[in-house]
Amino acid sequence: MKNRTKIAPSILSADFSKLKDEIKSIEPYCDLLHVDVMDGHFVPNITIGPCVVKSIRKISKLEFDVHLMISEPEKYIESFAKAGADIITVHSEVKYPLLKLIKEIKKYGKKAGVSMNPDTEIDSIMPYIKDLDLILVMSVFPGFGGQKFMPEVLEKVKMLANARNINRTKNLLIEIDGGINEKTAKLAVKAGVDILVAGSYIFRSDNREKAIESLKKAQ
Length: 219
Ligand code: DX5
Ligand code: ZN
Hints:
Blueprint: E1 6-9, H1 19-26, E2 32-38, H2 50-57, E3 63-69, H3 77-83, E4 87-91, H4 98-107, E5 111-116, E6 134-138, H5 154-166, E7 173-177, H6 182-191, E8 195-198, H7 200-203, H8 208-217
Parallel strand pairs: 1-8, 2-3, 3-4, 4-5, 5-6, 6-7, 7-8
């Protein structure tokens, strides 16, 4: 039987003036903490650096799922690994060779993920499927929370789920990020997703526990 879908709230939609309280408000209910790192170059927005990861590492035991939306991840993997990331995900669209990035992440004993934008084909990732712990399918163009889910990316999720069976990489996790709510979560889980990232749906809800439970139930 398939394991229960895991939930990764994205702190991008949290109130940064009280980040500890925000994390504590979701911690008992979720599985991972999704940390969106943006450099103002790969995406038009700037967010969190290793020093924030280091600070929140002290107050949470959740698995930190660090999503690097940055053009030169090769320069920062070490800092994020040492700051306390558990999973480090780089984008397949960056210039630096993917296999080298994956090896660099693993060198620090971390789980390696690769992400792809909505208009990136899975071919760019397929050669590394056996080297990866996680594939992150973007269901919006990265940069901002609160955008609308793009259902066309579900085809890629289905193809990846098939490829996982064929390659016998059953520990490989498929994650989706962008526009996830109670409705879109169902579509994603049906297509084969294991981890749902959700920012605004959880942090803008009046009842965060209930919002997370509704995602866990999505089938
Ligand atoms: C988008 C980020 C997402 C974002 C998701 O660039 O990678 O993790 O926080 O936010 P929602 O769930 O609001 O679309
Ligand atoms: Zn993200």
